[in-house]
Structures are given as C-alpha cells and as structure tokens.
From TrEMBL, chain A:
<dbReference type="InterPro" id="IPR007392">
    <property type="entry name" value="GD_AH_second"/>
</dbReference>
<keyword id="KW-0456">Lyase</keyword>
<protein>
    <submittedName>
        <fullName>Hydrolase</fullName>
    </submittedName>
</protein>
<dbReference type="GO" id="GO:0016787">
    <property type="term" value="F:hydrolase activity"/>
</dbReference>
<keyword id="KW-0378">Hydrolase</keyword>
<dbReference type="InterPro" id="IPR048332">
    <property type="entry name" value="GD_AH_C"/>
</dbReference>
<dbReference type="Pfam" id="PF04295">
    <property type="entry name" value="GD_AH_second"/>
</dbReference>
<comment type="similarity">
    <text>Belongs to the UxaA family.</text>
</comment>
<dbReference type="Pfam" id="PF20629">
    <property type="entry name" value="GD_AH_C"/>
</dbReference>
UniProtKB/TrEMBL annotation, chain B:
<dbReference type="GO" id="GO:0016787">
    <property type="term" value="F:hydrolase activity"/>
</dbReference>
<dbReference type="InterPro" id="IPR044144">
    <property type="entry name" value="SAF_UxaA/GarD"/>
</dbReference>
<protein>
    <submittedName>
        <fullName>Hydrolase</fullName>
    </submittedName>
</protein>
<keyword id="KW-0378">Hydrolase</keyword>
<keyword id="KW-0456">Lyase</keyword>
<feature type="domain" description="SAF">
    <location>
        <begin position="10"/>
        <end position="81"/>
    </location>
</feature>
<dbReference type="InterPro" id="IPR013974">
    <property type="entry name" value="SAF"/>
</dbReference>
Amino acid sequence: MISAWARADGRKGIRNVIAVAYLVECAHHVARKIVDKTDDPDVHLIGFPGCYPNSYADKVMKAIATHPNVGGLVILSLGCESFNREGLAAVVKASGRPVETLVIQENGGTAATIAAGMEAVARSKAIADAGARVAMAPSELVIGTICGGSDGTSGITANPAVGRAFDRFVAEGATCIFEETGELVGCENIIADRALTPELGAELVASIEKAERYYTILGFGSFAPGNAEGGLTTQEEKSMGAYSKSGSSPISGIVKPGDLPPSPGLYLLDVVPDGEPRFGFPNISDNAEIVELIACGAHINLFTTGRGSVVGSAISPVIKICANPETARKLAGDMDINAGRILEGNATIGAVGDEIYERTLAVAGGERSVSEELGHREFILTYKTFEPVGPACLPRSHAA
Amino acid sequence: MSAILLHPDDNILVVTAAVAPGDLVAIDGAPIAMRSRVEVGHKIARAALVAGDTVIKYGAPIGSITAPADRGEHVHLHNMKSDYIATHMRDTLERSTS
C-alpha cells in the first residue's frame, strides 16, 4: 500500500504540492521569484501566459489546481488580465484546499508581492502538510505515458516495455492513459479493433483522422528533425512505435484534456483541438501533453526517449525510460531506467516492463524520480479549443 | 554487427548497433557488406526495393520507396517518403523560402 494524501473528493495524492500559479505572463516573474526564493521541492510554478480568455485553459488550470497531488494554491494575478481568478479560487476553496490570491496591482508591485507571496506559500504549506494521510492501492493510480525525442530504438525497446507495464496496471484495475493522436496517424486501421465497442472504435479512427487533417493543414506532422536523425523516416513509422506504449489491453474510452476517466481501464487522450485549426500547433512541446495528462488525473507519467529528453514536470513526477543504449550512456544521470539493454541482448521487454512497474510503485510511494531529484518542474499551458467528448467515447458511462 | 527483423512480413531490418562501411551484417542468415555508415535504430533493406514499394515495419506499412535500395542498403529520407504527412528537417523552412 502507498501512503497517500487524502483529498475531500475521495481521490488520493502521491505528492503534496503547493502550486504557485501566474494567470498572465505579466505575473510570471513575481510567481517565479516566490517559488525560487521558497526553494522547496514541493512548491511548484505553474501558469498561463495569455491575456485573452480561453475555456480550455480555464478547465485545465482548474483540473490541475484540484489534482490529488496538489495540497494548496497561491494565485498570482497582475490585475487586469482576463483569466477568471475568482472562479479558479472558488473551485480550489470548494475542494477543501487552502487558496490565496495576490493581485500585483493592489499589493504594492513586484517586491511587496514577492514577499507577500512567500508568506502565502508558507501558510498554505503548513495547512497542506497537516492534511490526512490514507492508504492507497496500486489500482487507485492514474498513470500516463508520453514519448519525446523518439528514435528508431523507441518503438522496439522502451515503448513496448511501457506497454507491458500498462498491461499489468490495467489488469490490476488501475487507470492508464496514452495520448497524442497525431502520433497515431497510420495506426487507424489497427487501433479500432481494441475498442470496447464498435462505436468507440469509430471514434478512435475519427480522432486520428482529425489529427491527420489538422497537422496536414499546419504543414508539419508530429515529427521533429531529431526523430529522423535517430532513424525514423516517416510519421507513420514513428506512430507505430509510439502506439506500442499503449500495450495490448482493450481501450475503454477517449478523454480530452481536463476530463477524468470515469472508471479504471486504458484511455486515449485526444489532444488535437476540435474545429478549424486555431492557435497553432496542437502540442508545441512534450510538456504541453504532460500537463494535459496531469489535467486528466495522472499521478505519474512514464516518459520514453531515444534521443534523450531531460524534462520532468510540475505537479506529477515523470519517470524517464531510455530506449537507446548509446543515449543511456551519454545521459545516464537523467534516466530512471535503461531499456536500451533490450537492444544489446541484456534484458527482455518483459523484464524491463516489470522494472517500470516496480519503479512506478516506488515513485508513487514517495521515492523521487531522477527528473524530480534534478529539479525539473516544467509546465506549459497555451490556447486550444475542444468540444466535449460524445457518448460513444465513454461506453461504460453511457451503458443503458 | 547485427540487425533485427521485427516482424516476418517486414522488408526492412533495424540496426541494433552502428555499422561502418565494409561491416558484415547478417540478413536472413546471409552476410551482406555494408556500403555506408548506418546508426543504431536506422533501417536497412531486407531485399532489393524499387520506387513505389511499400515499406513494411512491425508488419505494418510505414511509407513508400522513392529511389531503389539494394539488399542491405540504408533505407531513410533519401529513398523513402511518408504516405501521410511529409517529414521536415531543420533546414526545411530555408529550403521552402529560398
């Protein structure tokens, strides 16, 4: 059993983070200074840079601020931006967490607000640290997966090994989420058969076709030059490798950023916006997807990399699984698990899958992942537009 | 020096450690001399491929051949393309604006 933090909504957290959230870029410096000067591994900077309102950003921010790994929130507003700070504060207050709002224009400016913010963080932390602990079973975990800096080794070592770990977690009744429909382009003909219902299968195909259309209009696939340098030639080749992270369990549903999976099982997170392309690329970098996985409740994210990504995340720990044995040697200090051993004949996919499973439980139990230990706390949230998922996307919730 | 076949239907193999020109790599049991350096994770042709052939990896189509590749030859951007969205490199923007 994991010793977790009890939350009023019944969910359980594996960390007890005080989040410091700026609601416009103009408040970013003050928020960052508060976090830097507090210098506590469990005080994290999050934020949204835009001055215009966006319902997706509002939904994701509320989901993050009430995530079970969060114990309290300090809001940093410049004062004139559009983000609804009262609405955010009300949701966090209703969740039973401490929340304080500092408006820079009403607090005497930069220096005074930094000082006041540090005091607010200390007060919130004292309340959060006194919160109740509760036992948590592995089946209560929500686990996300993402790949970044993929290469020709990703799809044959780290990704299928994560798939094995996912299969174990799903079999035990946990909730697992894979994502990035732009990296399923080319898999549409094989993914539908894994859906719980034919209607969900059709929705899976439709979500991938939406991604293909969106990326085609923008002129670039979800594919970076480093992917090609690492041996991947095409989008569909990268997709086949990325898809193997999902393992072989049946797919229970599709969620969108900020939706909580309604029951245990394996879910696809559809991260490509709905409607005509607006606001640019669906995922401007890997952390945008990690933030969306966290907004769907992920306690931990399993991050596979071949070229060698070094990022972590605010709020939920990232576990790094290195696919490429050469990268594993070059960036040894950044990786939790070396799946490149599979390529050198020193481990099987199943053995590395078991290692990922055990590491996930250890990190859930409080052990710091490598990226946490290194201080990686990346966070990025920008503009998007989504429609709610249709009933066929969540067949269990809509069964007659 | 080795390359692995991921699926019996595949017409490419994946190199498991970097190979240099002249290195012998076994393809379906027969040693084939490499003509160029091929890095780990990259693909080589299992059999001769011609323009228009579908490249199969993991038993699934991953693109089409655009220029002939002999058995054992590196299969990558120079002789293969996506059947979905074109692949971009760091100099793509400069090439399209010049």
